[in-house]
Amino acid sequence: MKSARYAAAIATLGILLCAAAPSDATFDGKNVTVTGYQPMQGYLRETAAPDGSIHFDMWESSGGTVVTRYDVDMTKIMHMIVVSDDLRYFDHIHPALQPDGHLTIDYRPAEPGLYHVYLDGIPHGMGRQVFRFDVPLASDSPAPATARTLHAPGESQQAGPYRVTLDPVSVPSGEISTIDVSITKDGRPAEDLHPYLGAMAHGVFVGTKDLAYMHAHGMTAEMLDMASAADCGDSMMLSMPPMVPSDKVASRFEFEILAPSAQPYNFWMQFIGGTTLYTVPFLITGK
Question: Strand 170-171 vs strand 276-286: parallel, antiparallel, or unpaired?
Answer without folding.
Answer: parallel
